[in-house]
Each structure stands twice: as structure tokens, then as C-alpha cells.
Design a protein that fits this description.
Strand content: under 5%
Number of helices: 21
Largest sheet: 2 strands, antiparallel
Order of helices and strands: HEEHHHHHHHHHHHHHHHHHHHH
Radius of gyration: 21 Å
Number of domains: 1
Distance between the termini: 35 Å
Number of strands: 2
Amino acid sequence: MVKVGIIALATCLTMMVAIIAKPRITIRGIVFDTYPLVAAAGVIALLLTRGLTLRQFGAGLTADTAVNPIKILALFFSMTFLSVYLDEAGFFHYLAGRTLARAGSDQRKLLTSLFLTVSVLTVFTSNDIVVLTFTPFIGYFTKAAKINPIPYLVTEFIAANTFSMMFIIGNPTNIYLASGAGIDFLAYVKVMLIPTVCAGAAVYVVIRLLFRKMLSVPMHGESEAATIRHKPTVVLGMVHLGVCTVLLAVASYINLPMWRIAVFSAISLIVCTCVMNAVTKRGPRLLFRSLHRLPWLLAPFVLSMFGLVLAMNGSGLSGRIAEVLSHGNPILTYGIASSCAANVINNIPMSVLFTSLLSYGSAPLSAVYATIIGSNLGAYLTPVGALAGIMWMSLLKTVGVDFSFGKFVSYGVRIAVPAIAAALAGLAVSAALLL
């Protein structure tokens, strides 16, 4: 157990340092993200020291369980593809343009419109996609309007990582944790509706107070005209995303696994797009760009972290940690612990670990939902808390926005504390009514 604990701790700490100090490295002209490399090195170390055997690793990856990482990755990549497809078709850019154009010269109205747009889109798509889509556009617009981009960039990031709690598909951590507890789509929404609304209201109020002086300055300049170049492509993507979401909502009633619904929807969209391209004589660039933009490095990262958790389970270390967390109110204990743990090891490996911890003893469903809240709202505290934060910080540099690690933490802590408190209070209400 000691050996496994040392390797797991060293892997997590090294990964955190790498994300902060050296998020990317170049080997023979090829750029690599460091976090999946560190995670893979941790699993290799466990295999070499016999802290984990290949048989154990293989059995875990092929197990016919709800937390099978292969199925969860299939669900995540399929849903991400549906969102990226719509982004490549220009749908999100169009919505952003329309939202910004309606605000006129009132920054407060603009911020409210942006908050609502990002929140709604995140509910039905993914926080990562919304963040990656809106960030460059906000950078461009604020420069053209000669206003400070910070309030809008922070609002976009916070709204995306708040309302990603609403549906199970909003964040891969939701999928992993809910699947591990056998929670279906509708049961999830019923419980998470109140916490999400509470957290959303809290962050909106805090953001308005934090940036009240910046938002009092009138805007100048004009935004880019918002148009959709090829409407049939957008319609095709919207239909597939809509039908997929509806089927996910009734998956437990039609006895179909969510990952199969998502995979079939993605394949159907690819086939339909190919047919449409053949009829209209359009090239396959949109499909290629969509597939290229998928976060493929997430796969080795999740699989490696899953291996670390398997080793911790086999050594008894997970059981010891679960025993510590079993004391006290489960909503507070798991909500706070998961928020903090996400900023030590990132929210995805945290979710893999906590899925295992929740399976020990008799942790109630409220603890699962509290952990889901921590996996989403913990992303506010530091860029390490979520992949969205890591990608967002990197993207800010490309749009010429100076936003340091310290500034992220300064804003993040002030927003995270009331948000987590509001969400956990909302969860206590939901638990009393539904669990």
C-alpha cells in the first residue's frame, strides 16, 4: 500500500507542477501536452514495480460495469463531436455575434446576455466546447469595442463550468461519477436542477459586484456581422444533437446504454454529412476539422488515471481514504474534499478516484452529487482544477490577454466560495425532497 501511495502521490504532484510550469513540451518538432505523459509514466511505474499487473489493468478496462472507462470515453467523444461539428458549422459563432450585437453600448446588458447564452449552450453541449468557442470571439469583440475583456472572459468561464452541472452530458466528470452510481439522465436532472440554479444565481451576483466599475464604461465600435454560411449543415447538426439529448433522457426507459445512443448519433451525423456533401458537391473539410479538434489526449490520460485508481483499490489505500471521508455530513465532506482534490490532481482523475471511494462503505447518493458539484465548481479555484481551465489559460495567450495564474486564483476564490456554498445548500434541499 505504501509503494502504491508513493507512486500515486508522486504522479499527481508531478502532473500538477507540469501543468503549471511546463504544460507542453516539444520533442523532435512535435508538441505534446505534459499531463497525459506524466499520467502514463505513473501507470508504467506501477506496472514495473508490480503495484499493478497487466491482468488487473486489462480486466478493469474490459469489465462490463457502468464505470468502464472505454464506454465513458465513447460517450464523451461522441457528444463532443456533435458539439464541435456545430461549432465548425458556425453555429456558436453566430449565436455569440447575435448576443453581442443586441447589447448596444451597455456593458452590463452585454455581460448578462453573454452569461445567459453561455449558460444555455453549456447545458445542452459541453463546457469545454463553449469555452474554446467563445474565448477567441470575446477577445476580438472587446478589442474592437475598446473595453476590458476580463469581465467577459471570467463570466464565460464561470458560467460554462457552473451550468455544466445541469445535465449529465455537460462534463465528462458528470458522466463518470453518475455512471458509477447507476444514476440515469432524468434522475440526475431532477436532483441537480436546484443546485445548478442556486450556484448560477450566486455567481452572477458576485460577478456583477466584482466587475461593477469596469462595466460602467460605455462601449465603442461595432461587432462582426453574425451569419451562417451553410444552413443545412447547422440544421443537420442541431437535429442530431436534439434527438440524441432526448434519447439520453429516456435511455433508462428504452433500455439502451447512453454510450450507445451517443456513438450511434455521432456515426449517423457523419454518414448524413457525407451523403449531403455528395449531393451538394461539398468537400469533407468540416468533418475532418471536427474530428481533428476532438481532445484525443484525454483518452490516454483517463485510462492512465484509471490504472492508478485500480492500483489504489487493490492495495487498500482507497478504502482508507473512504473511511476518513465517511465521517461528518456527506454533502459537505464530499463537496469540499472533491473541490480541493480537483485542484491537486485535476477534476478528471479526481472523479475516477472518488468513484472508487464512493463505492466503499455506504456513501449515500447525496455524496455522489456533492462530488459532481466539486468536480465542476472546483474548476474556479485554479487552472489545474479542470482541463477547461488549462486550455482556457493557453487560449488567452493566443488572443493577447494577460491573465496570470495568480489573477485566476484571485478571482476564482472569491467566486468559488459562495458558488460552492450555494450549490451544496441547494443539494441539501434536493436531497431532502428527492433522495
